Amino acid sequence: MISSRISRLAHWPGLGRLPVWTVPLVVLFFQLMGSTGAERGVYGDEQIYDPTRLDLFAHLLLCAGPLILLARRRRPIVTLLAVSAITLLYYLRAYVYGPAFLSAAVAMTAAVTAGHRRFVWIATGAGLTGFFTLSARLGLPAEQAGVASDRVFPMERPTLLGTTFVVAWVLVVLTSAEIVRIRSEKTAQAERTRQEEGRRRASEERLRIARELHDVLAHNISMINVQAGVALHLMDDRPEQARTALAAIKEASKEALGEMRSVIGVLRQQGEDVAPRAPTVGLARLDELLERARAAGLDLHSEIGGTARPLPAGVDLAAFRIVQESLTNVTRHAGPMPVRTRVRITYGELDIEVEIEDEGKGAVLLPDDSGGSGLPGMRERALALGGGFSAGPLPGGGFRVFARLPFEEDE
User: Is the pLDDT of residue 195 over 80?
Assistant: First the structure.
């Protein structure tokens, strides 16, 4: 019962954040008041034994132990040795059996918690052996103890009952210290686990945000760049076609701003379960995406296989972003426009397949050497859903991106 109470006290919320002097101050109060009260009870009407009265030296010993406890966090072993010596001296002087042991108990707990448990057990055993040896050799018989006040160590010779009581008390203190140590280690481990989990989630969130921003900005800015080049080229000779390119630039910039607001709006919301204020993009907006790609100069053909149906939000977004990023890469790297490109979406029973092929003649970018975030981002999206992803050049020229995105039937 005592050990469990000490263990609960050691894990009282906020106790570990208290100033270092708090525990020594409490120990000082109980040692002084408890020893004074015990002395009054001993010298009352019903005298149980005859200890040495508390004098100035006794009060110095009672104050010295708590004072040394101020160093228990920085020097736990030195603190334990010093406090143990003071406690032994107090009892060898045969002062009243008050709570003078509290300093030693706190020092033991601090040393064990700091990781010096083996040293504490050995030092405690050696200290008890020395105490009982000195008591047996220098101690007085019970009828003379407390009378010969002129002796340096006027203690009583140990009895079997007294020895058993002291050993039992020390075992209780050491056991309580071990309980505190174990629970402290579990608490520290749990805290480290929470911190690691927090860092992992933060890292995943940063990657997700970076992926979203990359997909939103890269696609639309690539379209704007292509259309701006077309507009500059046709401005003087064919102003009507230049006007069409400028209209496409306006539409692409409007789309980019809208998606940026959606992403930033989600980031600003508090809590994990708050729904986005704007609808998440998905394959329902595939036709808009394809039209903007055609306006950028792609000779684009699309096919839908299987039976189209609503998809889980994560799968729907991933499929849309993979198509979007693939078309962005075609626009940027496939060479002179127009580039013949085929987009095929196939709905399966428990998955959806996304395939983009182009016949471009430009630079071929592989997933491992592109140096950008496009292909790695697509791969991350697919693998995060438990699917598969592949990307690479075609034998006759061009490039192919393929992703399989599984989903649960009940979703």
Answer: yes
